[in-house]
Amino acid sequence: xxxxxxxxxxxxxxxxxxxxxxxxxxxxxxxxxxxxxxxxxxxxxxxxxxxxxxxxxxxxxxxxxxxxxxxxxxxxxxxxxxxxxxxxxxxxxxxxxxxxxxxxxxxxxxxxxxxxxxxxxxxxxxxxxxxxxxxxxxxxxxxxxxxxxxxxxxxxxxxxxxxxxxxxxxxxxxxxxxxxxxxxxxxxxxxxxxxxxxxxxxxxxxxxxxxxxxxxxxxxxxxxxxxxxxxxxxxxxxxxxxxxxxxxxxxxxxxxxxxxxxxxxxxxxxxxxxxxxxxxxxxxxxxxxxxxxxxxxxxxxxxxxxxxxxxxxxxxxxxxxxxxxxxxxxxxxxxxxxxxxxxxxxxxxxxxxxxxxxxxxxxxxxxxxxxxxxxxxxxxxxxxxxxxxxxxxxxxxxxxxxxxxxxx
Length: 408
What we know:
Elements: H1 3-13, E1 19-21, E2 30-32, E3 42-48, H2 55-66, E4 72-78, H3 83-95, E5 103-107, H4 111-116, H5 124-128, H6 136-140, E6 143-144, E7 147-148, E8 151-157, E9 159-163, H7 174-183, E10 187-188, H8 195-207, H9 225-239, H10 252-260, E11 266-269, H11 272-277, E12 287-290, E13 304-311, H12 318-328, H13 331-341, H14 354-359, H15 363-377, H16 381-390
């Protein structure tokens, strides 16, 4: 059955007066599901980090045109670019029981935390009808306590961007890559004191054979010899001049801006940077994308991430929020995200679209990274529970709500 037919079947059932529960709220407070014959109206507020790609502006235009006759429109509440600050702003609103955010673009590791705090609608009845549409790994980021607390929006895997007018290919190991950068050209990445640095470091540490927690999740292994070796390598690339000293202030936007000056040969970043590089005069048509290298004597590792869509338990328009969520996670918007803004789609069918394959030459590698990650998630559930109890942030947004781990 096609995804549109499946959603229609779900919507039709609402005519029977089914209800959904606001997960975990005191007294089991309930809210009505949106009805197909009485579509939601009014304004739905979508909160997310800074719209660096223009994807949210395009969403707002398309959604408001599509639902204008129904009397439903979207407003965008823009949060800062920093993932840490996005989380802080959402938490502040939820603690105040504010209706500022009907729908939130949530980092993938936050779902369990927010659900545990009783801040989200339980969307299990809706998502059960759509599960087969999604790649398995993004769907797992929404699973907490046996329930699904939202829908995936986009998925991420990091890559090395390189100037193919300066070098033929990316070196096979991190050591060789950093050595090449130090000899001329340089590399930029995310090394500011925020979760992005954790992602970059974990890619080296895991590739070197390091871990963060023991297999049983009871002991920290952060000071292992492998982790020390990875840390030293990352420090040395700055000391040796392979990366600019200013890289210690770079988040994703600053890394991208530096690469787009045309000065640097290499950049570690996420898929979104591809479309923006194609619009930058000094690098347009002069770069390619490659998988992350291996660690000498070790392996290749990948930290994966993305964003989820979750509905606030304090939303003033939960029906409108669900309509927006349904649209954003559906085929039309997913194709737009991938083909125009180079954001990793979460629907299996989107990867087969010719326009997406053309716009994302590395889409096959991205999809493979997502599928390979699925084999690593089950091993770390005990670590997840332990990490939640400690309220640790070590796992970073790229670890998809579980303790950090390798993917191969």
